[in-house]
UniProtKB/TrEMBL annotation:
It comes from Gossypium mustelinum. This is Uncharacterized protein. The chain crosses the membrane at residues 15-34, 41-61, 67-89. It comes from the Eukaryota. Keywords: Membrane, Transmembrane, Transmembrane helix.
Amino acid sequence: MPPTHQSSSATKVSTFFSATLLLWVISVFFQIPFNKRRDLLYIFAGGCFYQFANWVIRFSVSRDPLFVNTSVSLLHSAVTSVSVVFILLNQWSLTSFKSMFEHKELVEGTWPWAY
């Protein structure tokens, strides 16, 4: 069966996404040893954590790829949301409400390790 326009388009998107992700990973892993950005190791640790969660859900709950991807995506959203709320509450307790949303405070004070 010849490929349809939709499958060709999906393949192009998949290739573009994979290439972009590969360039980003190379960039991050270049920064760690050459620019001594040890704080970026958390990206690697996070990737390992979510791959482990993917494996646990796949082998203990369901082998359905849609279920596994949705579960890990929800886990990622929950962890990210809790982290952001924790950071904002922590900043609110350390600084005033007015100064915590200034750009300098957000970039340099609240989340200096954000990349």
